Amino acid sequence: MIERCLGAQRSRKFHRALRQCKVTALCLVLTVVVLRGIIGAGEFGTPEKDFYEIRNRLYFPSRKRGGDPHRVLEERRATSSSFATHDRNHYKNNYDEFNVKMFMEDNGEDDEKPDPNEPYSRGPKISNWDAQRAQWLNENPDFANFINKKPRVLLVTGSSPKACENPVGDHYLLKSIKNKIDYCRVHGLEIFYSTALLDAEMAGFWAKLPLIRNLLLGHPEVEFLWWMDSDAMFTDMTFEVPWERYKDYNLVMHGWNEMVYDQKNWIGLNTGSFLLRNCQWSLDILDAWAPMGPKGKVRDDAGKKLTKELKDRPAFEADDQSAMVYSLATERDKWGDKVYLESEYYLHVNWAILVDRYEEMIEKYRPGLGDHRWPLVTHFVGCKPCAKFGDNLAERCLRQMDRAFTFGDNQILRTYGFTHKSLASGRVKRVRNETRNPLEVKDKNFKPVQSQARTMDTV
Amino acid sequence: MIERCLGAQRSRKFHRALRQCKVTALCLVLTVVVLRGIIGAGEFGTPEKDFYEIRNRLYFPSRKRGGDPHRVLEERRATSSSFATHDRNHYKNNYDEFNVKMFMEDNGEDDEKPDPNEPYSRGPKISNWDAQRAQWLNENPDFANFINKKPRVLLVTGSSPKACENPVGDHYLLKSIKNKIDYCRVHGLEIFYSTALLDAEMAGFWAKLPLIRNLLLGHPEVEFLWWMDSDAMFTDMTFEVPWERYKDYNLVMHGWNEMVYDQKNWIGLNTGSFLLRNCQWSLDILDAWAPMGPKGKVRDDAGKKLTKELKDRPAFEADDQSAMVYSLATERDKWGDKVYLESEYYLHVNWAILVDRYEEMIEKYRPGLGDHRWPLVTHFVGCKPCAKFGDNLAERCLRQMDRAFTFGDNQILRTYGFTHKSLASGRVKRVRNETRNPLEVKDKNFKPVQSQARTMDTV
């Protein structure tokens, strides 16, 4: 028909042009499709999802389609939940840097579906835990809860049983646990790394509550449980927690009394790194803390209430940190006298406040200070290395996590005569010549740590 | 000029065709390039390398170009290096399943370039380590090398400072260290997780030697160092190593005397999981072991020698396991009386022999046996989850590693009243009702482990 309309010669030209256009169009379409999968510019929709979909289809054909579920047992917050002990103004100026939206996305839910008709139950109430535990300790003197006046401590952390959505996420989880292993070995702490969601309703940032409860009851020999987020790292390998300071307290968190009790500020304390004594009081506060946690309507409604009641809190579902602020602020008489809000050293510090200053710290200060000069724990709030990448923050997070890790690792390696070539490098070099008498050159500036007897895991 | 040759009209046609061809060609080139990076079919060369190159360029623009370096500090072998204690024939039938080619690729070299003109040096020879150590122990009674007759043990493992080439590799490294943390907590062992290559020449499977030496010298309080590969997992959380059996020995490996000393079989023993006493003898055997390690000509030539001298060894560069077989077989008088080749329980077992039998084990046996009925350590030789995927073996490896991990994890979770829903599932369920008296229901079948004082990391 085209030939009849245009004539033979023109028809041939038309067909030739059409063929070339088809090839051109096909190439362009293919290119756009694959580029979209790789580059992922915003205009294309959810490109990271496509990228991982392509990767999954090609590399893991037997894996379930539809993207990896969210993380569990990880603290996900873009909180500016730490005030620099000496620079609150600096913190406030940087508040906007933290993308609260990221906090509200991907809060680590597992894809279990609890029965909405079943009321949430935390198990039978225990009312005499102190007596039970005292009797057990009396019968098991080999597992004393104090050794040389130092409490037996179990450091608890964890992550999802599933691989991270982000290909490098598990690598940073690995570095983080290696970092914790080092600190704990030096300081005589035990570690429990959880990869199990013990209660489907208490998923996401709430998953730590049933875990902590089970561990307290399962380890009567443990005096203090130290919860630490997987995105928090030890950056002072020498600093020893001042346990004696807390002899009359049961819960220690980084924070400020006025921010919690006076302002009811949702970031007046931080639950990414805290100490909890193994006692009846702690079981009671866990019970008081938990009700806002069950996911779904309960958590959503609780979130609205928390946003209304707490200062500066954005709108999102209830998180454990806000719930703790609320509990303490509204029931200060009940809990306050046993809660220590610590701000003299960095039981936790928001990474953004000081990660650019590691070189300055190395030049001016030394390990063992634990505070703004040499922070005990650097906490990468808002970074979420395990979740899919969202924005430019990711690149900065990973780079700074590497630096923080190396900053801590150098303090370990130095005892063996090594150090990293730079804070950005995984490579190491010798800084102390080998000798025929290695025991004479052990660093005399630091004292050996106290011994600690082991926990009683009966397996 | 074209216009002069062809005439105006033809020239326009020519130019138009040329433009269309250029567009077509550009599209085709772009499409091929990005497809090559994504799909990675063999004909395109090293597609996985391009895929990660593209990913790196787009997601990590500040990272160094050139592809990810190989792994370090990991045991890479496709060895059939373990004979089933009760089923050597079964093992031999499965030998071909292990892809020795995989072993020879990607042996974990870091991309450091040691100076070929510098002779390899392991540092000044120490000749009186026993005396130095005895004096130190005498001066530091808080850090005794034995507690209640049990030796102080440091479990050592590690992996590369860089993220795995395989996106899920780090996830399996993470599960593996969580598994080791659990066993060590139960049994009173300390852990050192290394992510540093201490000696550029001794890369790949040889990296453990300088690490072990530095740790022995850095931890005089440690009596035994237990090296364990990152691809080995504890599958019996109850079994206690029979330390008393080894009181007159300095090196314990899984293996068989006749396979090593009579046959000089390269898989007559396994160096993926072994115990090494902290003493002068051990420093000496490390010195004797190391010479085949330096990468390059030394390692290549040594490989040829080992292939010639050892039974059934394929041709590839010298590995630490073959070198140990060779050292023992050729210098039995020098070392043999202090080496215990253990075959009564699975200090290591090749995964392929028994991973399909976990359900049968659960049905018939119980933890604490440590042998073919309930193996202490399941070792995923040949799997290399951190390296890029090579073939169908990868899928089976990951699935079985999950099962082995869960098999071990169930033994830990049970103490808290939980278990996984199946060996293939990351989800857990309660198997013991909660109670108001949790201490009355602690499992009475197993005894508490002995306490162990901490190591002396001075930081």
Automatic annotation (TrEMBL), chains A, B:
It comes from the Eukaryota. This is Xyloglucan 6-xylosyltransferase 2. It comes from Citrus sinensis. The lineage of its organism: Eukaryota, Viridiplantae, Streptophyta, Embryophyta, Tracheophyta.
